[in-house]
Structure formats: structure tokens, C-alpha cells
Amino acid sequence: MTLDELRTQALQCHSCLLASRRTNVVFGEGNPLSPLVLVGEGPGETEDLTGRPFVGRAGQLLDQALEEAGVGRANVYITNTVKCRAADWQGSKAINRAPTDAEAAACRRWLDPQLAILKPQVILCVGAPSAKNLIKPDFKITRERGLVFESPRARAILATLHPAYILRQRNMGGDGGYKEFVSDIRKAWGLAHKYVEETAVKVIQPSLF
Description:
- By secondary structure, this protein is an alpha/beta fold.
- It has helices at about 5-10, 45-50, 55-70, 100-120, 130-135, 140-145, 165-170, 180-205; strands at about 30, 35-40, 75-80, 85-90, 95, 120-125, 155-160.
- It has a single domain (about 5-200), classed as Uracil-DNA Glycosylase, subunit E (3-Layer(aba) Sandwich), CATH 3.40.470.10.
- It has eight helices and seven strands, in the order αββααβββαβααβαα.
- Strand 4 and strand 5 (about 95) form a beta hairpin.
- It starts with a helix and ends in a 5-residue tail after the last helix.
- The model has no long low-confidence stretch (mean pLDDT about 95).
């Protein structure tokens, strides 16, 4: 199956209750050949309205951090653990929340084949919910942020802070960990390219003898 074929199927998904109040399925976007894939938690209000990942205030901060890390949004692929907005509704007002385990499990039917098609060298989990889904259930972002783990989905996987968390911390007068955020992106990008170079050497070497 191609990425476009998988996307077409995902746009029709009704595997969980999140589908009942969504505006758009937010499948993912970016460079499908990138060695680095960023996996966030799930779409928010702006993402739900546009069908694109990380395009609200948190997405703008992510774009800024990608540029400062020397990467650029166009050079990576970005998706989420769930493809529909997770929110609690109070009348007509929606309040974003973390996806439940059941919602994340239902969306694995899209995330797992998506990552299998993309074949990234490195996955960077953006936020603790993503890391708990893809690294381990008891992942602690404060203790294990930036550490490199093994993964069946890529040669390496690590996690960083979510830009929404950084924005909340800034609203309370703190830095929010933005420097660490940029550093983690730079580390993931460097590691991904290191693996690409190692693979290229292995392919070239046999022809030298």
C-alpha cells in the first residue's frame, strides 16, 4: 500500500468516537522520504479545521524550533498518534485533552502502517502522550526526554517536549524548555543523518572490492 492509498482509507475512518465530532482527519504531511518523522499527540482546533498537523500556535513554535535547529519543516514528515481531535465538549465549546488509551489503540491501524511506509531512520515523539504510545507506557518526559531508545519502527526513537507545554509555561513566566526543545530536534536530525550516511557506506563498500 502507498502512503496516498493509506491516507484515502484513513479519511473515511470511524473506528472510534472521535470521528463523530471531527471536522477533518489529520493524517500527516511533509517529506515522505525524510529520515526523521515527528509524531505528536493529536490535532487541536486549528488542525481539525484545516486537516493539517501542527499549524496552530504550538505548530508555529515547532516551525520556529525546526528552523533554529537547522532542519526546516519541509525536510521532515509530521503526524500524530491519533488522527482526529480529542476533546471534551461543554455545550458547543470543545476543550482539548489527551487521547485515551482506547482512542490511541484504535488509531494504531493508521499510525503503524504509516510509519512502516515512511521507514524513518529516527522518530521524534513530540510530547509525553506520543512517547507513552511509541516508546513505553511509563515514559517520563522530565526524566527521559532526549534519551535514545531502540524501536521496531525506526533505528532509534526519542522524545521531546510538546510546544503547547512550552507555551503554557511561558504564560506562567517561565522559559518552558524551548532551548531543550531545539536541542532535541537538532539531536534527532543529526542522528537520522548519521544513520543515512552509515547505510550509504554499507551500500557502496561492496563495489570497492
